[in-house]
Specification:
The chain is built from 15 helices and 12 strands. The protein has 381 residues and is an alpha/beta fold. It folds into 4 domains: 51 residues, no CATH class; 56 residues, Sun protein, domain 3 (Alpha-Beta Plaits, 2-Layer Sandwich); 145 residues, no CATH class; 79 residues, no CATH class. It is globular. About 10% of the residues have low confidence. The structure holds S-adenosylmethionine. S-adenosylmethionine (SAM) binds next to α6 and β6. Belongs to the class I-like SAM-binding methyltransferase superfamily. RsmB/NOP family. GO terms for molecular function: RNA binding; RNA methyltransferase activity.
């Protein structure tokens, strides 16, 4: 049997298994979770529908994708979403990874709900856009596409491997030209847009314009003295010797290598038109000093797609049938854990508002159903 056909059979079997298990819900849900749902006014039977929910793909508008050809390859009909351009729904068992269109970067899997969050930002050409929790990057790709040929996209995530997945996605889909990716903490991230986006900022690392050495090393800088003096060249993939040495040392010492020099976010990737090439390191690292000043120029659109409990993701919750509900209880129903996620969300949200231009748009998106804490978060803003 051909590999694609075998994959399809396996997917169908997995789907049937999931449907069989989801059918047992909500009776198999743990009492603590049922109480939690009740407290938040949610009907537990929604989880039974998880395995029959459609999947969604987003077709890249700039590519010439032949929909009938894709339908033939998948052996099924795609239904366009009238309210969300370039999105199509597919039956839950559909496998897109083996299609030519997927391999050529003409489409990617993305939930309609994720698409709706990006659509709500109403990004237009020339906007300066910030994504404070970017990885693994489906929303980022849609944002980059929506931006078109002017403006900028700045994205932050705290997890290096997840940010690497983001970079891979941007490169695969050819969407990184105007994008900067930072490894850093979204709760304290303070860097302002480039491309004329920031007027009020002072250099964070001094302003030494005497040395024009081109480092061009993929944006990995570990020596603060060198940082002050250098100019960015075109981003190149691959690690520098310096970066490899730092990573090896961090691994040996057991240090999580999460942020760059002096706690500053690390520039992980930048596209050719992201405004970085030719800039002094110190100028790229200009930080927001006081967003209340009249001349403040931050971001026009901010997405806070925060880390959350995932209880609002039906498909995710159903997986605990296999992973074990005790894991779910430990991860998400624990009061300390909920409090720490809520505090993180609040700090991300506050920072998002701090960096937003007056009259700009911020979209806060999570897959959690804890109504009371979401309301509290907004009251606290
Ligand atoms: C819900 S996911 C984001 C999904 C992403 N927007 C997308 O569309 O693919 C939440 C992300 O927040 C990141 N994260 C958690 N704490 C963070 C922090 N303090 N600063 C920045 N990112 C953080 C996690 O690493 C994770 O990748």
């Amino acid at each position: 049997m051909a590999a694609a056909a075998m994959a399809s059979v396996r997917a169908q079997q997995a789907c049937s298994r999931a449907i069989a298990m989801a059918d047992q819900l909500p009776s198999t849900l743990p009492p603590a979770f049922l109480t939690f749902l009740k407290q938040n006014g949610l009907d537990a039977s929604i989880y039974a529908a998880a395995a029959t929910l459609p999947r969604y793909i987003r077709v890249q508008p700039r590519t010439s994708l032949d929909i009938p050809e894709l339908e033939e390859e998948l052996g099924l009909k795609l239904s366009p979403l009238a309210w969300l351009p370039n999105f199509f729904s597919l039956p839950p068992q559909a496998q897109i990874a083996s299609t030519q269109a997927y391999q050529l970067g003409k489409l990617y899997g993305m939930d309609a709900a994720s698409g709706a969050a990006v659509a709500a930002l109403e990004i237009s050409s020339g906007d300066h856009v910030l994504d404070l929790c970017a990885a693994p990057g489906a929303k980022l790709c849609m944002m980059a596409e929506s931006l078109g040929d002017s403006g900028s996209l700045t994205a932050v995530d705290i997890a290096r491997p997840r940010l690497a997945a983001c970079r891979t996605m941007l490169l695969k889909y050819g969407l990184g030209r105007r994008t900067r990716l930072y490894l850093g903490d979204g709760t304290t991230f303070s860097l302002l847009p480039l491309n004329g986006g920031s007027k009020l900022c002072s250099a964070s690392a001094g302003d030494d314009r005497s040395d024009d050495e081109d480092i061009g090393d993929g944006g990995f800088h570990k020596n603060p003295r060198m940082e002050r003096k250098t100019v960015y060249g075109e981003w190149r993939s691959g690690r520098t010797r310096q970066e490899k040495r730092s990573a090896k040392r961090a691994k040996y010492l057991g240090i999580p290598l999460q942020t760059g020099v002096d706690g500053m976010p690390e520039l992980f990737f930048y596209g050719i038109e992201a405004g970085v090439v030719g800039m002094k390191v110190a100028d790229v690292a200009r930080v927001c000093q006081d967003s209340n000043e009249a001349s403040f120029s931050g971001y026009d659109k901010v997405l806070v797609d925060a880390e959350c409990t995932h209880d609002g993701s039906l498909r995710h919750i159903v997986k605990y049938n296999e992973w074990g509900w005790d894991t779910f209880e430990r991860r998400f129903l624990n009061e300390e854990r909920i409090a720490s996620i809520t505090s993180l969300q609040l700090r991300l949200l506050s920072n998002g508002f701090r960096l937003l231009n007056p009259g700009g748009t911020l979209v806060y998106s999570t897959c959690r159903c804890i109504v009371s804490t979401s309301r509290t978060l907004f009251r606290m803003q």
